[in-house]
Amino acid sequence: MISSLNISPSSSLHRSLILKPTNYYYYNSGAVTACLNVDVRVSGSSLNTSSLQEKKSAEIIADEKKFIVGTYARAPLVLSSGKGCKLYDVEGREYLDLTSGIAVNALGHGDPDWVRAVTEQADVLTHVSNIYYSIPQVELAKRLVASSFADRVFFCNSGTEATEAAIKFARKFQRFSNPDSKEPPYEFLAFTNCFHGRTMGALALTSKEHYRSPFQPVMPGVTFLEYGDTQAAVEAIQSGKVAAVFVEPIQGEGGIYSATKEFLQSLRTACDTSGCLLVYDEVQCGLGRTGYLWAHESYGVFPDIMTLAKPLAGGLPIGAVLVTERVASAISYGDHGSTFAGNPLVCNAGIAVLDKISNPTFLASVSEKGEYFKDLLVQKLGGDSHVKEIRGLGLIIGVELDVAASPLVEACQKSGLLVLTAGKGNVVRIVPPLIISKQELELAAEILFKCLPVLDQASNK
């Protein structure tokens, strides 16, 4: 190992190199250099950012295809910065962002309160693990309990991890509640068009067959019923075999379908009668997106367990499972855990997000802008022959088409507007940052309107 080099601290070589023992090759700005036990790194960063900024989209896309496992069919767009509801690619083109990182960036990009919370906490304490207590984790849990039906919180790192925890908690609850039973209820109910995650347990609860089939066999014991079919759901729950029912009050990935109050109330009543748990997945529809802090508040029907994730830490990875005391009493030390979950950094970010979104004035603005935007979309798009329905609540909106939505999504991107697909690929999913202005919504509606003719071209092919 090279143990000493006489390099002046003021020299350009000193500024550009950090010497670290290693036996690896180091890839730097397109050139691979063999180094004998020396790892060449850029001082202050592991990447030469100025060099990378000079790279064009095509080069970066080519590198991605070479070095990253191909699990994403990405849009050919390399984003490098963002502010508010605007994003910019490496060539400097501007885009109006109505995706918010798939309903994650609820406060937009670079919110100053969020930036302050993250930077100040990073300067103090980032991670200690759950072997010890930390103040931001407890404070975020207190806020979540105070603002919800729940009595206790379990933190994890994502929506799919929240689903996995809810599965385990439900099965443990049934064993705890039926100590004399040789086979306590262990099965689960889920519904058509649902999406609960991609890990093996969460995947088993996700209805789309093409997500599950490559990885069979997944967790057994899951029955899928028609979303909204009250009779079938009640009959299944009354069988006494179901540990928990998983349902999204508003389905995001599935196509922006909303449950009815009658459906959720029937599930609640049947679960209470049978001892089954009711689990709401609010990973996408929760935390202010509907104009209510929690989507189920608009129905007045409350769960035993609720899963959260996407917007809770404003872009940092977090998940949470909110439970009643009845459920929490079944959980013991060692039943579940996570190394990174609820660390001080993400929880301080979560506090900043929750404090801002839970303000009644903020929530009222989401409701108002959501109604305004839906009315705009009906006016501008409703007369088009390909538009079947415009639906949603607050700022989670779906435009259902009678053809594939991808040509419209691609045309919007070329015109400076970013939107998503959902459902069976025939729904334009709109989940902008909750801070979006009416002027930005007007611009988005205008771009969508001007891009509609591509649907005629696509349908005539």
UniProtKB/TrEMBL annotation:
Name the needed cofactors. pyridoxal 5'-phosphate
**What InterPro entries does this protein's entry cite?**
AcOrn/SuccOrn_fam, Aminotrans_3, Aminotrans_3_PPA_site, Class-III_PLP-dep_AT, PyrdxlP-dep_Trfase, PyrdxlP-dep_Trfase_major, PyrdxlP-dep_Trfase_small
Highest taxon listed in the record's lineage: Eukaryota
Q: Does the keyword Transferase apply?
A: yes
- GO CC list: mitochondrion
Q: Sorted alphabetically, which Pfam families does this protein's record hold?
A: Aminotran_3 (PF00202)
Group of enzyme by EC:
transferase
Q: Tell me yes or no: is Iron among this UniProt entry's keywords.
A: no
Where is coiled-coil annotated? none
Instruction: Name where it mostly resides.
Output: mitochondrion
**EC?**
2.6.1.11
Alphabetized UniProt keyword annotations = Amino-acid biosynthesis, Aminotransferase, Arginine biosynthesis, Mitochondrion, Pyridoxal phosphate, Transferase, Transit peptide
Give the pathway listed in the UniProt entry for this protein: Amino-acid biosynthesis; L-arginine biosynthesis; N(2)-acetyl-L-ornithine from L-glutamate: step 4/4
Which cellular compartments is it found in? Mitochondrion
Q: Name the reaction it catalyses.
A: N(2)-acetyl-L-ornithine + 2-oxoglutarate = N-acetyl-L-glutamate 5-semialdehyde + L-glutamate
| Single GO biological process annotation from the record | L-arginine biosynthetic process
Among the GO molecular function terms of this UniProt record, one is: N2-acetyl-L-ornithine:2-oxoglutarate 5-aminotransferase activity
- Stated family: Belongs to the class-III pyridoxal-phosphate-dependent aminotransferase family.
State the name under which the record lists this protein: acetylornithine transaminase
The record lists the lineage as:
Eukaryota, Viridiplantae, Streptophyta, Embryophyta, Tracheophyta
